[in-house]
């Protein structure tokens, strides 16, 4: 779709609107694709990580299903230590493996 000088592009909103109305101007990253507050990994990147790892925990082998909430896309090198938010720095972990890893990293970060 063509862009304009303000760095926006014409995108149809998901709202119902009059058939003769013009498309709304939205930023290039629509709100439904923006990271959720508190989420460290954007949804599209998380999904790419899960697919690459075939919805399987890379530590214990637990196999999850899309949307079941048992898997996390975890930063191999955490963000606080300068790890990038890139697919090659992510691994799929189940909740049981992710929680202790996060706790160890938090403890180490506090100098405990």
UniProtKB/TrEMBL annotation:
<dbReference type="GO" id="GO:0004519">
    <property type="term" value="F:endonuclease activity"/>
</dbReference>
<feature type="domain" description="HNH nuclease">
    <location>
        <begin position="44"/>
        <end position="99"/>
    </location>
</feature>
<keyword id="KW-0378">Hydrolase</keyword>
<keyword id="KW-0255">Endonuclease</keyword>
<protein>
    <submittedName>
        <fullName>HNH endonuclease</fullName>
    </submittedName>
</protein>
<feature type="region of interest" description="Disordered">
    <location>
        <begin position="64"/>
        <end position="87"/>
    </location>
</feature>
<keyword id="KW-0540">Nuclease</keyword>
<dbReference type="GO" id="GO:0003676">
    <property type="term" value="F:nucleic acid binding"/>
</dbReference>
<feature type="compositionally biased region" description="Polar residues">
    <location>
        <begin position="1"/>
        <end position="11"/>
    </location>
</feature>
<dbReference type="InterPro" id="IPR002711">
    <property type="entry name" value="HNH"/>
</dbReference>
<feature type="region of interest" description="Disordered">
    <location>
        <begin position="1"/>
        <end position="37"/>
    </location>
</feature>
<dbReference type="GO" id="GO:0008270">
    <property type="term" value="F:zinc ion binding"/>
</dbReference>
<dbReference type="Pfam" id="PF01844">
    <property type="entry name" value="HNH"/>
</dbReference>
<feature type="compositionally biased region" description="Basic residues">
    <location>
        <begin position="14"/>
        <end position="25"/>
    </location>
</feature>
<dbReference type="InterPro" id="IPR003615">
    <property type="entry name" value="HNH_nuc"/>
</dbReference>
């Amino acid at each position: 779709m063509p862009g304009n000088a303000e760095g926006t592009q014409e995108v149809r909103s998901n709202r119902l609107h009059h058939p003769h109305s013009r498309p709304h101007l939205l930023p290039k990253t629509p709100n439904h694709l923006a990271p959720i507050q508190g989420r460290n990994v954007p949804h599209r990147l998380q999904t790419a990580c899960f697919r690459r790892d075939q919805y399987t925990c890379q530590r214990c082998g637990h196999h999850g299903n899309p949307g079941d909430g048992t898997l996390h896309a975890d930063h191999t090198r955490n963000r606080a230590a300068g790890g990038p938010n890139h697919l090659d720095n992510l691994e799929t972990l189940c909740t049981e493996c992710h929680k202790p890893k996060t706790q160890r990293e938090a403890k180490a970060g506090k100098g405990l």
